[in-house]
Amino acid sequence: MTRYVVIGAGAVGLALAARLHLAEIPVALVARGASLDVVARDGVRYTDPTGTRAVAVPVADRAGTRLAPDDVLVLTVKAQQADDALGEWAWQPVHDPADPHALAADLPVLVLQNGLATEAQALRRFATVLSASILVPAQSLEPGAVAVAAADPAAVLSIGLAPDGTDARVDALVADLQRAGIAAHSTDDVLPWKALKLLGNVNNAVELLGGSDEERKALSRELTAEARTVLEEAGLEPADGAERDEAVGRIRIQPTEGWEPGRASTFQSVARGASSVETDYLNGEIVLLGRLHEVPTPLNAALQRVVGASFARGEAPGTVTVADVRAVAAR
Ligand SMILES: NC(=O)c1ccc[n+]([C@@H]2O[C@H](COP(=O)([O-])OP(=O)(O)OC[C@H]3O[C@@H](n4cnc5c(N)ncnc54)[C@H](OP(=O)(O)O)[C@@H]3O)[C@@H](O)[C@H]2O)c1
Q: How many domains are contained in the chain?
């Protein structure tokens, strides 16, 4: 039976591991630092609109995780951490009595990062890469604890093979996720779904900016419009989200203890004092595509620059403002 080895005990990894374990689907969580200690001692503290549960998910660090031939790796680290994690895992042994040479790179790996970069990083080492766009309102501000502001479904995923296609492994994953209360569908063209997600994620760092709500909303609209133009020029037409809502299911946000709106994963990184933010893989992906296809991206480049420099200076959310971003874009 497939076991999902979830690498990265943050918001997405904790939520996914808890839901799979609650559905009695084999799962092993790979954690490090304080998360490892807390989950090993107390389980995952999983809060959703129905309440809080301690979920006793099996957990270990990489050295303590013995891979088996039926394992599927699930990468739930941030995009800027993915290449390192893939490199750490690819050449680890798999304990397969039928094949003494088996390595992790022979196992399927599901990559869940926002942005468009992880698939190529994974394909550099792994032969079978499953790629997904994931919608999940998950917040983790303390080690081992996650609040997900939706139930049934807790998340919505579009999953296919990278770079394209679909197969029985994707179908099996979709079925397991559905058993775990997560809506999912398989697609033979996952890239448009990743592109659609990126249109929203170019706004993640806007939550870190000072200014009025109106100013932030206007900037977000313009960032998304600029991103859409670039994606279309690059031949990456975003998928139609309304179609998926209809056919697969949609997230319904409900009041949930420990979850506050307007705190997407970049905000959570800064609030936790993380050592890096994902902006170079979100706004930076649009900037990269713009440079490759000769499309100007002044707003995405300005946001990436202003937030990157503010993070490097160790500033708190709200220190740099919408006006700072507009001033850099106008230069
Ligand atoms: N949060 C959401 O609601 C949400 C929704 C949709 C998509 N996403 C996307 O999903 C991805 C994951 O986001 P997230 O919010 O779950 O990030 P996160 O909370 O920062 O979690 C990432 C976790 O991975 C751990 N990690 C990093 N490298 C590792 C390694 N080599 N080995 C073991 N653990 C490692 C990190 O540990 P350290 O803290 O020690 O670095 C952290 O606990 C991102 O691409 C994000 O954009 C997030």
A: 2
